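Sample entry (278 residues):
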Amino acid sequence: MKLATISTPDGSAAVRVEGDRGVELGFPDVGALLAANDWREVAQVADGPVHDMATARLAPVVPRPDKIICVGLNYRNHILEMGRDLPEHPTLFAKFTSSLIGPYDDIVLPHVSSQVDWEGELAVVVGKRARNLTPETAGAFIAGYAVLNDITARDWQFRTREWLQGKTFESTTPLGPHLVTTDDPALSEAGAMHLTCEVDGEVMQQADTADLVFGPADLVSYISTIVTLQPGDIIATGTPGGVGHARKPSRYLREGSEVRTSITGVGELLNACRGATS
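Predicted structure, serialized as tokens:
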């Protein structure tokens, strides 16, 4: 099952995606839907107004998650290209919801940064309240997956040993296009999920999620030991090798750049870059 949040003249709406149709589910967004105990059953049977998905404007699939928790240095090949050792524990940082944009919205390049980089990632969406889980039980608390790009201002990220300031500039983080639930046949048909990030038509990143040091269930378990995860929380699982900052010479996004981020079985983001107007 694929779920999305669309913008309508009357506000936003959570929809079930059926090919080129989006059927309203009676909730303002996917995050609100996931807060219902019976969200999966509701999403399967609800029969509201229908929208043409070819013309619908998609919002971030969860527009206002309680938490966006990101994982750094989690693909083996990316860790090696950055000259680091494999971590013993996940490296965590956070984003704020103001950084989120829809799957086809423009990435707003901060006017204070000249080193804006791409980081294609698999996003885990939490499906129910989770606290102190084991890796063996954590998978049942995952609602599904989406695509995210952790656009990063490297010159701000590395100002200090903490990364937050480079990771959460407003209107920089596309998320979507859908929430693909864990029972969707597309995931099993895809097998190992393959991530690709292209910039201006050139492939920059390619990896299978099998290269993750800490997988989705491991991350849900670990994070739930620190904080209570809520329905709709987003966990960005980290990026593979191929980022612009690690290239020789380094390469960064510019106004007019186009970033395409895709994961087999999950979906695709397509975002143009533009300069900030204020």
